[in-house]
Design goal:
The complex is a heterodimer of chains A (777) and B (158). With 777 residues, chain A is of the alpha+beta class. In chain A, the strands form 8 sheets. Chain A has a 7-stranded mixed beta sheet, with helices on both faces. In chain A, strands 7-16-15-14-8 form a 5-stranded mixed beta sheet, sandwiched between helices. In chain A, β9 and β10 form a beta hairpin. Chain A is globular. Chain B is an alpha+beta fold and 158 residues long. Chain B is built from 5 helices and 5 strands. Chain B has helices spanning 25-32, 88-96, 105-118, 124-131, 142-157, and strands spanning 4-10, 13-19, 51-54, 57-60, 73-75. In chain B, α2 (88-96) packs across α5 (142-157) and α3 crosses α4 (124-131). The chains are: A alpha+beta (777), B alpha+beta (158). At the A-B interface, α1 and α18 of A face α2, α3 and α5 of B.
């Protein structure tokens, strides 16, 4: 057992009380004197040329203070990399998806702004559109971006080992097609921004961003102002899950409207706008070919992926790279070949979402593994055990596994799922008729990068200020979008400095004050910013020790900090209160203000988006999930009464927060598997409400969620910690789909698992079984 | 339509406000009375983030016309507990980890309060029914249900 005073304890999150009191301010809760309200006009067409725009009537409407269109932003485009900058703050020349931002208005109130939108006249020439990624790839398909022939946004073609030889040597080969649908991030707080432009060149903006420093750079470039003049202040964030990373039109428009009107401008999107035109997870078609030995040992994977990117690239290169990386883990696959096309379509733009690009490939690979086990008469647990990665393993592509508790997670998940009692071996009971309610259990494994390595700015930085009353300010640019990282970082500082959690205050990100940070994605914060905080706290402690050594007349190495006390280890009675030390520090001798600083980044080469060679992150988490399902064989309805997460997270910095992450991952994963779907017709989203879309309610999610943490003490992460909030959603889908097969003997390879699909599969199976019986007789 | 002067009793205080007749209670609370603890999310009654308590019942303020609730007792999250001493439900939400991003939290807590005020010893099914109209993306609801049940259990033991 570790001897930590703060870490590893089930501590309530530091921002819990203000959120429960309703006093935590989110962007829409802010208002400024003279503030205007902004609204955005969106395209009614999936693909059209803008022939003419007339905003004069809108400008004349009393109460309207500014109207902006695409040309107000000049030629500014934004994107992840220089060659993928294909998004505009407002459409230029043509619109590429239904709901794309075309113009924006600022007025004295929302009603007036809405009335003004109705007065903007846009003449469109409707163009042929393409909303199916396979059709978009075909010759003669409508071209969505003039400079991108073939509608290819990202193409990755890579491989390691000798795949052809492996397939020759394989005893068994399977090839299957899987489809993962369009799903939303599902955050409840709509995107919002409140901006002030101060002439000649200063921007202050409050915006709901999980990674605010993307927008800070975007705004400096877009408005041609120095970075020091972009002040981005981060209010509380009502969930992000990947859908609030970068700058979006709402942010650019708020600033431009303020610049034009000379007044503060707030824009809050409606949920309908979010549901019908905001960013989404990539829908993917995954064709996967896998070769194994008779005993189930994996020899090769070959994947062909078509990812529907929508009308822009966003962070798409990272999504595609992630799909490749996590074809290589959590199992040992000696030979891999991968080709993916991320395709432009006339749809809302696909971006990262909790597990960025990995759910889709792991759904395919882990369901197919069960198919193979079934075909070869192997046990689904055994086939995972024999193929699992291990500490010290390096993938053929060069991913280094420095800690791995996969086997323990399998063992623990199997135990918690009461596998022996509930597993129904189909190959033994095939001929028995199904009852009204069919039950089954399924399993799947996962791995995820703990702290994504980036190609650009990679390190996280923390600054620790020790106040003279012994309290601490922890400045970090890493944001807490709800996941609890602020609490985890404060706990690390409190542990090192020997104070209590309540003594550490983490102000929210403010680009004028907090250090620049890549952002909250790729499971970076606890693992990467955590190390920066560790170093900063040690730096502050070193400064404090110099004074303490003189006051306690002891060698600095002999002095310990714990529970607000500073004392000599060998003689604990020689002690002083931490607050007294803090006060003495500013007064002692000439006095010094204690400010600790630390930076940390994964010291591995940058991501290679072309070949996928090398590491995806500083470390890798591993895990196993097990699902119980119950299927009503008359209606086809699937429910998941119990879900088990066993996760190798290195070290649980705060077990209460970890459980919350595991349970939230299950919620998102169950939603993706069974309930959620952006139903679209010709580019129009037909599910523009949360109810129609299918965001799960309390009735839809497992009544029992078991969260088990396996601690492997990773050598890289702070205090051995690895990620625990994204990998945990990766294997939810295949665990449920495998459980469905276990219950009713059919494979669902097309998500979501609707009642209709289940009933159809049961009908098809019945017909096949009948044909077989007939064939035999 | 022309403006109307209405009187709303919110958290025990009578307020006089001028509204257009079609104005929803949610907007009046947030924009005219400065009570931003009531959250604005879907605006169409899907998510429950705007839940307030009116005459003891949990109600969606985004679907309630302000002019309709004159003379009724309106309770918002701001009325629960005070700075130093949170309401037991608020405390349970914090202690159980039922709060993550916190955006659904005020509405969720008010749905829970309406339930516990009416039925201090609810069954699991009662708790689920009470929050079935409050969506949460972060928690998977397990810790929210736990927090509500813990509050009830603490009251029973008090």
């Amino acid at each position: 057992m570790s001897d930590y005073a703060v870490l590893g304890k089930r501590l309530p999150r530091v921002d819990g009380p203000v959120k429960a009191a309703g006093t935590a301010r989110f962007t829409d809760d802010l208002a400024l004197p003279g503030m205007l309200h902004g609204k955005i006009l969106r395209s009614p067409h999936a693909h059209a040329r803008i022939l003419n725009m007339d905003t004069s009537a809108a400008e004349r409407l009393p109460g309207v203070r500014a109207v902006i269109v695409g040309t107000d932003f000049g030629d500014y485009r934004y994107g992840l990399k220089p060659d993928t900058r294909d998004e505009y703050p407002l459409a230029r020349g043509k619109v590429r998806y239904l709901g794309e931002e075309v113009a924006a208005v600022a007025a004295v109130d929302e009603d007036t702004a809405l009335a003004a939108l109705a007065l903007i006249r846009v003449d469109y020439e409707v163009l042929p559109s393409v909303t199916d990624p396979e059709a978009a790839l075909r010759e003669g398909a409508p071209r969505i971006h003039e400079d991108k022939p073939g509608n290819i946004s990202v193409h990755m073609n890579t491989g390691f080992g000798d795949v052809d030889k492996a397939f020759q040597e394989a005893d068994y080969i399977r090839e299957d097609r899987f489809y993962s649908q369009s799903v939303l991030h599902g955050f409840l707080e709509p995107c919002a921004a409140l901006a002030i432009w101060e002439a000649p060149n200063r921007i202050t903006i409050w915006a709901s961003k999980q990674s605010p420093y993307f927008l800070y750079r975007n705004l400096a470039n877009c408005f041609n102002v120095p970075l020091s003049n972009v002040r981005l202040i981060q209010p509380y964030i009502g969930g992000g899950f990947g859908g609030k990373n970068g700058g979006y039109p709402v942010d650019f428009c708020a600033v431009m409207l303020s610049k034009k009107s000379g007044r503060p401008v707030k824009i809050v999107l409606t949920m309908e706008e979010i549901l019908s035109s905001h960013r989404r997870r990539h829908p993917m078609i995954v064709r996967l070919k896998t070769g194994v030995k008779k005993d189930g040992t994996l020899l090769a994977h070959e994947a062909h992926i078509i990812a529907d990117g929508g009308a822009g690239t966003g962070v798409g290169p990272s999504t595609i790279a992630n799909a490749f990386y996590f074809m290589n883990l959590p199992y040992v696959v000696p030979n891999v070949r991968f080709e993916a096309f991320r395709v432009y379509t006339n749809r809302p733009i696909s971006v990262a979402q909790r597990g960025n690009g990995i759910q889709q490939i792991r759904f395919a690979a882990d369901v197919q593994l069960d198919m193979i086990a079934e075909d070869l008469g192997l046990d689904p647990i055994k086939i995972r055990e024999i193929n699992g990665a291990y500490t010290g393993y390096t993938t053929p592509s060069g991913m280094h596994v420095k800690s791995c508790g996969l086997q323990e997670t399998i063992t623990e998940a199997v135990k918690a799922a009461e596998w022996e009692t509930h597993y129904r071996p189909w190959r033994e009971k095939k001929d028995q008729p199904l009852g009204r309610i069919a039950k089954g259990v399924g399993i799947a494994c996962n791995s995820f990068e703990s702290g994504a390595r980036l190609t650009g700015h990679n390190c996280c930085t923390a600054v620790i200020k020790v106040h003279e009353d012994g309290t601490i300010s922890l400045l970090t640019g890493s944001t807490d979008a709800g996941q609890g990282s602020e609490t985890a970082l404060a706990m690390i500082a409190a542990e090192i400095l020997g104070t209590r959690l309540e003594d550490v205050f983490v102000p929210q990100t403010d680009s004028a004050v907090t250090p620049v940070d890549p952002g909250s994605f790729g499971s970076r914060v606890s693992s990467t910013a955590g190390n920066a905080v560790l170093i900063a706290a040690q730096d502050a402690k070193k400064q404090l020790l110099q004074v303490a050594a003189q006051l306690l007349k002891a060698d600095p190495g002999e002095i310990a900090f714990r529970d607000r006390k500073v004392f000599v280890k060998s003689a604990p009675e020689r002690s002083l209160r931490f607050r007294d030390l803090a006060r003495q520090t500013v007064a002692w001798g000439s006095g010094t203000t204690v400010i600790g600083q630390g930076s940390w980044g994964q010291s591995i080469p940058p991501l290679n988006f072309d070949t996928g060679e090398g590491d995806a992150g500083g470390a890798y988490s591993f895990g196993t999930q097990a699902a119980w399902v119950e299927i009503d064989t008359r209606t086809g309805k699937v429910s998941v009464p119990r879900m088990v997460v066993a996760h190798d997270l290195g070290f649980a910095l705060n077990p209460l927060a970890v459980e919350g992450q595991h349970e939230g991952s299950i919620a998102g994963g169950v939603g993706h598997t069974i309930y959620e779907h952006c139903v679209e017709e010709d580019g129009q989203t037909m599910t523009p409400s949360l109810t129609a879309y299918g965001l799960p309610t309390v009735y839809d999610l497992p009544a029992e969620m078991v969260s088990l943490s396996i601690e492997t003490i990773d050598p890289v992460g702070a205090f051995g910690a690895k990620e625990s909030g994204e990998g945990t959603q990766v294997s939810t889908i295949p665990a449920i789909v495998n459980a469905i097969h276990n219950a009713i003997g059919v494979w669902i390879t097309d998500l979501p698992v609707t009642s209709e699909k289940v009933l159809k599969a049961l009908r098809d199976k019945k017909a096949q079984d009948a044909a077989k019986v007939e064939g035999r007789s | 339509m022309s403006d109307q002067i209405i009187h709303l009793k919110v958290n025990g205080t009578l307020h006089t406000v001028t509204v257009v007749p079609q104005r929803m209670l949610l907007e009046v609370l947030r924009e005219q009375l400065g009570l931003t603890g009531t959250k604005r999310a879907c605006r169409v009654g899907d998510c429950g983030a705007c839940t307030v308590i009116i005459d003891g019942k949990a109600v969606l303020s985004c679907l309630t016309l302000a002019v309709e609730v004159q003379g009724k007792e309106i309770v918002t999250i701001e009325a629960l507990g005070d700075g130093d001493c949170p309401d037991p439900i608020q405390q349970s939400f914090v202690d159980c980890g039922a709060v993550q991003c916190g955006f659904c939290t005020p509405g969720m807590i008010l749905s829970a309060k309406a339930l516990l005020d009416e039925k201090p010893h609810p069954e699991r099914a009662d708790v689920q029914r009470a929050i079935a109209g409050n969506l949460c993306r972060c928690t998977g609801y397990a810790k929210i249900v736990e927090a509500i049940e813990l509050t009830a259990a603490k009251k029973a033991n008090a």
